[in-house]
Amino acid sequence: MLPPLFESQLQLPLKQRGKVRDIYTVDDEHLLIVATDRLSAFDVILPTPIPNKGAILTAVSNFWFHFTESFITNHLADMSLKEILSDPDEYQCMQGRSVIVKKFKPLPIEAIVRGYLAGSGWKDYKKSGAICEITLPQGLQLADKLPSPIYTPSTKAALGEHDTNINFSETSALIGERLAKQVRDISLKIYTRARDYAAARGIIIADTKFEFGTDMKGELVLIDEVLTPDSSRFWAKEQYHVGISPPSFDKQFVRDYLETLDWDKTAPGPTLPQHILEKTVAKYQEAQLRLMT
Ligand SMILES: Nc1ncnc2c1ncn2[C@@H]1O[C@H](COP(=O)(O)OP(=O)(O)OP(=O)(O)O)[C@@H](O)[C@H]1O
Ligand SMILES: [Mg+2]
Predict the structure, then answer these.
(1) Is 110 touching ligand 1 by the criterion CB < 6 Å?
(2) 223 lines ligand 1 (CB under 6 A)
(3) CATH 3.30.470.20 fits 105-239, yes or no
(4) Could you write out the DSSP letters of every residue in 220-270?
(5) Phi, psi torsion values for 7, nearest 5 degrees
(6) Tens digit of pLDDT for each residue in 49-61?
(7) How many CB atoms within 10 Å of residue 28?
(8) Does 3.40.640.10 match the CATH number of domain 1-103?
């Protein structure tokens, strides 16, 4: 197992640090995406890294990139990490937790697909009977499976701001009608196939977010991370009941623990005790095991 990594410090130009991932510029056409072991809960990055989380998320995302490659081009580059990281220590530490990707122009939208009623979708449904102007049958309960998956895109918010839901014509205005249709159709296809695959292995993918970019010809490419517990809501089949909010597959012990503290859910977050850490590591390992074996 790699030593836990809270923040990477590579001898490459740093492009940005996200909540979980550190992005470096490799050259004009490539980026290095490093999945650290940071975990965020209630939108706050906790100070305790989760050993192996970055490596597991990288493996899971790569698994889905291969799962979908027959119908959507993705950003994975076939450059070797050794070529980029000449320092053997850097290489050792990054191997398995990073990907070299081709750089594309990210579309300014988040392609969200929901198969179940949860989170903000549930709130919207309770208020209006609809999510993002998609009217749903009456009488659905929290965590109910939707009659069919729905596509509910949003804008990509700047740091500290909240994403805004957009309807189809607003999406078309942003990226053009051809891409808007393609993103919608591909997103629903990826979600549906992945949902069925995961369900057979005891994981419910309640909802997820994809990101797409365009290449030089304006063709669509799947970028970022795909169907990881960080970009999706995973539930364990055996903990799933309609009418309650099923526990998050990966963050349940962390959230439950945080709820016992007198913490106002603003940064800095509390450190995690060893037993919570161990249980959480085990959940990430279990997710990988269920999906990839
Ligand atoms: N192939 C690519 N080409 C260009 N940009 C990319 C590519 N793949 C991913 N990105 C961009 O890299 C960034 C990933 O960093 P981001 O800030 O989302 O990290 P994160 O750890 O997911 O944080 P957060 O939880 O805040 O989203 C995103 O802005 C995404 O659009
Ligand atoms: Mg992100």
Answers:
(1) no
(2) yes
(3) yes
(4) EEEES--S-TTTEEEEEGGG--TTS-PPPTTTHHHHHHHHTS---S-SSPP
(5) -145, 130
(6) 999 999 999 999 9
(7) 6
(8) no
